[in-house]
């Protein structure tokens, strides 16, 4: 993850001018319509496997549709992909379509009319149904009831547990509730005071995106998927929020958190719990081939408060998707939409994506569709990610995502962990600060 700034007020003014002034032009990153051929520029993420996938899809599509030319290129990433896109929009060099768009960044682009609502294209509903993503995409709807991003992948963030160590402590499964987690932690400390439950240095850092992988995982489970912010309104539940902070406080007071940097603490057994995305497994295959599910680790959804049914646990969705840019001509926009409709009309294309990127396609039927069965048989650790795609909540859809998530750390999580505030006071301070930011 890389930082990007969302405080480019002047840039957003320029963006609005570009977006409104170029609607009828054939910009689209310098592409247009010539001799009856519509040329669209597709910006892929800088990950080589994603570029390879989209290049292959474009080549196959163009063989069937000779009136369209698709130019696939990696998006600029200096200092981040988001900043690269912002700069391109301001300079009038935006692509026709790009991937790698998070919901929070899309909210910023939509607020400046830099991207177009996909839900307004004819055939949008058919696309959602044919890809079997009705439930998944429902959590992506924006506050104006439009859909500006088509989710490509969704990583339902899970917790990994050292099941071998849990077994040694007398537990046969990962804990599911706060009290069960604390019970495991206390017993672990009794046997080995040098071990920790969760090693995460980012817990005490104000880094905005770090909150996705600690606070929001726990909060989403406690609130059963509350969206926290909807549009420009702070809608988080007080009870769930305070319980979340109390959970972090209890972990810290029982010396179960390691908040200094450590090298591979979960893999070495220094910590027995960690937040895990599917990208972890290729790393393990290379560096820690001994890590085997069912032998020394298991995966679970985030724990919940004692009065919440673990079956209702939700989590954070590390997810990104496709957006079409307003500066492209109507012909280019339609050609881009037709292309992605073609890609997602065949589950085999999602299977190819899954194999090449290890990023779970954003489909409701990922764990049940026979197209993916053989792959899951070879990679059983990915099944639980697929099963929980509908239970994963994407980032908030607000153009001030960075500011909001920085306030979660500065006003609430970090002061609680440092012993400077009690959970209720911290939550109220954070709530007041976020409401002020959203006005």
Summed up:
InterPro entries: Bact_solute-bd_prot1 (IPR050490), SBP (IPR006059). This protein is an alpha/beta fold and about 450 residues long.
General description of the model:
The chain is α/β, with parallel strands linked by helices and 439 residues long. It has two domains: 9-156 and 318-393, Periplasmic binding protein-like II (D-Maltodextrin-Binding Protein, domain 2, 3-Layer(aba) Sandwich); 158-276 and 400-438, 3-Layer(aba) Sandwich (D-Maltodextrin-Binding Protein, domain 2), CATH 3.40.190. Helix content is 42%, strand content 15%. The protein has helices at residues 9-21, 48-64, 81-90, 103-111, 124-130, 134-138, 163-168, 178-191, 215-222, 238-253, 265-268, 280-287, 330-343, 347-357, 373-378, 383-387, 401-417, 423-438; strands at 33-34, 37-44, 68-74, 97-101, 150-156, 158-161, 196-199, 229-230, 233-234, 257-258, 271-276, 298-300, 315-324, 392-393. Strand 2 (37-44), helix 2 and strand 3 form a beta-alpha-beta unit. Helix 2 runs antiparallel to helix 14. The radius of gyration is 22 Å and the shape is globular. Mean pLDDT is 91; it is low at 1-31. Keywords: Signal. Residues 1-21 form the signal peptide. This is Sugar ABC transporter substrate-binding protein.
Notable characteristics:
globular; 7-stranded mixed β-sheet; 18 helices; 42% helix; 439 residues; alpha/beta; D-Maltodextrin-Binding Protein, domain 2; disordered N terminus; 2 domains
């Amino acid at each position: 993850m890389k930082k990007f700034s969302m405080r480019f007020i002047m840039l957003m003014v320029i963006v609005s001018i570009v977006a409104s002034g170029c609607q009828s032009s054939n910009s689209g990153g310098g592409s247009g319509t010539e001799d009856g051929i519509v040329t669209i520029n597709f910006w892929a993420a800088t990950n080589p496997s994603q570029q390879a996938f989209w290049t292959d899809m474009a080549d196959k599509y163009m063989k069937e549709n000779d009136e369209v030319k698709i130019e696939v290129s990696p998006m600029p990433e200096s200092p981040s992909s988001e900043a690269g896109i912002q700069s391109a929009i301001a300079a009038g060099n935006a692509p026709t379509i790009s991937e790698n768009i998070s919901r929070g960044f899309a909210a910023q682009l939509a607020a400046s009319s830099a991207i177009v609502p996909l839900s307004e294209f004819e055939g949008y509903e058919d696309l959602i149904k044919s890809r079997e993503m009705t439930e998944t995409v429902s959590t992506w709807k924006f506050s104006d009831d439009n859909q500006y991003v088509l989710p490509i992948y969704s990583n339902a963030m899970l917790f990994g547990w050292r099941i071998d160590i849990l077994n040694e402590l007398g537990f046969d499964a990962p804990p599911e509730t706060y009290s069960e987690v604390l019970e495991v932690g206390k017993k672990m400390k009794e046997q080995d005071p040098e071990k920790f439950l969760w090693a995460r240095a980012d817990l005490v850092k104000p880094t905005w995106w770090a909150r996705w992988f600690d606070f929001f995982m726990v909060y989403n489970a406690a609130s059963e998927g509350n969206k926290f912010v909807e549009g420009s309104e702070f809608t988080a539940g007080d009870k769930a929020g305070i319980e979340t902070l109390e959970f972090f406080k209890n972990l810290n007071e029982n010396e179960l958190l390691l908040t200094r940097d450590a090298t591979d603490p979960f893999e070495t057994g220094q910590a027995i719990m960690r937040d895990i995305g599917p990208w972890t497994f290729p790393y393990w295959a290379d560096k820690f081939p001994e890590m085997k599910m069912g032998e020394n680790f298991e995966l679970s959804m985030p724990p919940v408060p004692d009065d919440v049914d673990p079956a209702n646990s939700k989590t954070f969705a590390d997810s990104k998707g496709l957006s079409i840019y307003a500066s492209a001509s109507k012909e280019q926009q339609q050609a881009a939409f037709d292309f992605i409709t073609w890609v997602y009309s065949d589950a085999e294309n999602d299977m190819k994506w899954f194999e090449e990127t290890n990023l779970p396609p954003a489909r409701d039927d990922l764990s049940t569709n026979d197209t993916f069965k053989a792959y899951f048989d070879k990679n059983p650790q990915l099944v639980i990610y697929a099963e929980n795609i509908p239970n994963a909540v994407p980032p908030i859809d607000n153009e001030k995502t960075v500011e909001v998530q920085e306030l979660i750390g500065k006003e609430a999580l970090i002061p609680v962990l440092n012993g400077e505030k009690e959970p209720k006071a911290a939550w109220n301070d954070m709530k007041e600060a976020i409401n002020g930011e959203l006005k």
